[in-house]
Automatic annotation (TrEMBL):
Pfam families: YceI (PF04264). This is Lipid/polyisoprenoid-binding YceI-like domain-containing protein. The keyword Methyltransferase does not apply. It comes from the Bacteria. Residues 1-25 form the signal peptide. Keywords: Signal. Residues 33-185 form the Lipid/polyisoprenoid-binding YceI-like domain. It comes from Flagellimonas eckloniae. SUPFAM superfamilies: YceI-like (SSF101874).
Length: 188
């Protein structure tokens, strides 16, 4: 119950930071089950891969502003010990419980979006492990059955977020992590 309440408070604060609710609500598309997957595997070693299927995202189709929030403990690994190490030793999820992205889609025009995929670069700030990094991923967007679908991938380095990898396993974890995202934003 505490976890649900904490998540609700974090989300409400996050959403409130996006601007005026009255104006924003008219153009707001929301996703509550967005998916983020990351892979940091090295060849010949055990797969380092996790998926989070409960990521919240908001897209303002009038301004092109986008915001995404993931509770870090929501990432699931095939190996439970790897998941424990991820949360306790690397990402320190008790100290840094959430990851977020806030940005703006460059040249986004909701009216011209069709069911064909359109590449759009997104300027934004990724916040992870208490550190911020400006990134500009190129993502794909399209309209589908009244929703706006977003998917794509980008690269991030653990070192950019001051995430320390112990020497004993540093050769088993990639220096650059591939992050895949998929969201289906629905009008609210």
């Amino acid at each position: 119950m505490k976890s649900i309440l904490k998540s609700a408070i974090i989300l409400a604060t996050f959403l409130g930071s996006l601007g005026s609710q009255n104006v924003f609500a008219q153009n707001r598309y929301v996703e509550r089950n967005g998916e983020i997957q990351f892979e940091a595997s090295e060849k010949l070693f055990e797969e380092v891969k996790a998926t989070h299927e409960s990521v919240t995202g908001i897209l303002d189709v009038a301004t092109g502003e986008i915001a995404v929030l993931a509770l870090v403990k929501g990432f699931r690994f095939k190996n439970s010990l790897m998941e424990e190490h991820f949360n306790e030793n690397y990402i320190e999820s008790e100290k840094y419980p959430k990851a977020s992205f806030k940005g703006k889609l460059n040249g986004f025009d909701f009216e011209s979006l069709t069911d064909n995929w359109t590449n759009i670069s997104v300027d934004g700030k990724l916040i992870l492990h208490g550190k911020e990094k400006l990134i500009t991923p190129a993502l794909m967007f399209r309209k589908l059955d009244g929703s706006v679908v977003m998917k794509g991938s980008f690269i991030a380095a653990p070192s950019d977020f001051d995430i320390k990898i112990p020497k004993i396993v540093e050769n088993k974890i990639a220096k650059e992590v591939t992050i895949n995202v998929e969201f289906n934003f629905s009008k609210k």
